[in-house]
Design goal:
By secondary structure, the protein is of the alpha+beta class. Helices cover 56% and strands 16% of the residues. Strands 2-1-3-4-5 form a five-stranded antiparallel β-sheet. A two-stranded antiparallel ribbon has the order 6-7. A hairpin with a 2-residue loop joins strand 3 and strand 4.
Length: 283
């Protein structure tokens, strides 16, 4: 916007100087100096304002002109920003940008106002290009949206998964030697040689006579897939959250970067290990 203002100032100076009488060189020089000083200080070229508001928990806010100014405000070093609004005006143009965090969305919005529509469109396009350059990858955007599974619902889902899935996978081995012998007789057929034994097996099975049933615990393969599922649910519970790099928000950003790098490595490795395990199992 400053570049646009400087162009308009130079254009205004050139237009006014073109109207000066060139017959008197001394008067021309004086008038040119006066115009060169007057135009930049005249309205609207002398307008340059900037305002920034950072929002915090509890409906509180802090005002300043830049992030550097806000970072020096005493007593706010432990605060976590929940969003900000930036407004800047230079001459005939103004830009407004806001970022607000909520449970499902972290929306960055911006608007541009200028008397010159072509310039307004140009600035808007630059802002859109900047947003496209800094936005997260698609898988990070998906992971961010998955935070809807977090909170109390996510913790409950994780608890149910950790308790009920292993219990459902466990079973009791009720197939003992008597069952196997009975199957063999059925396959062979009942005749005079095994009729007496068949009757004994029927009575034994009806009265639950035989060895104590043995519980079947999940195999190591099950636990591998169970751990993989728990990792994904845990990751959904702790998906990245929007943060502003101001006050304690800087620590949040650094912590989330470490967490993203960890998940970016462990999740693909876990999936790859599961696929290799399945391949080995079927060989």
């Amino acid at each position: 916007m400053r570049e646009k203002r400087d162009e308009e100032i130079n254009q205004q100076i050139a237009e006014r100087m073109a109207q000066i009488d060139l017959s008197d060189p001394k008067k021309y020089k004086e008038e040119a100096e006066r115009i060169s000083k007057y135009v930049p200080q005249s309205y609207p070229f002398n307008v340059e304002r900037r305002r920034m508001t950072v929002y915090m928990n509890g409906g509180r806010s802090a005002d300043g002109t830049t992030f550097e100014d806000l970072s020096t405000i005493p007593g706010l070093s432990n605060e976590v920003p929940r969003g900000f609004q930036l407004w800047a005006e230079v001459a005939n143009s103004a830009v407004e940008m806001s970022l607000k965090f909520d449970w499902l969305n972290d929306d960055l919005t911006f608007s541009v106002k200028s008397k010159d529509k072509s310039f307004s469109d140009e600035v808007f396009g630059r802002l859109e290009n900047w947003v496209a350059e800094v936005k997260s990858s698609r898988w990070l955007q998906f992971w961010f949206r998955a935070k809807a599974l977090g909170g109390p619902t996510g913790y409950l889902l994780l608890l149910i998964y950790l308790i009920l899935v292993p219990l459902a996978a466990a079973s009791v081995n009720t197939v003992g030697p008597l069952h196997r012998e009975a199957w063999q007789i059925v396959q062979h057929g009942v005749d005079d040689s095994n009729e007496k034994r068949a009757i004994q097996l029927i009575l034994a099975l009806q009265t639950d006579y035989g060895p104590t049933p043995v519980p079947n615990f999940p195999s190591g393969r099950f636990w591998a897939y169970f751990s993989l599922g728990a990792l994904f649910i845990f990751g959904f519970n702790f998906s990245p959250k929007g943060a502003v790099g101001l006050w304690r928000g800087r620590q949040q950003i650094e912590t989330q970067r470490v967490w993203i790098r960890f998940v970016s490595i462990t999740a693909p490795l876990a999936i790859f290990s599961a696929l290799v395990s399945e391949l080995i199992h079927f060989l």
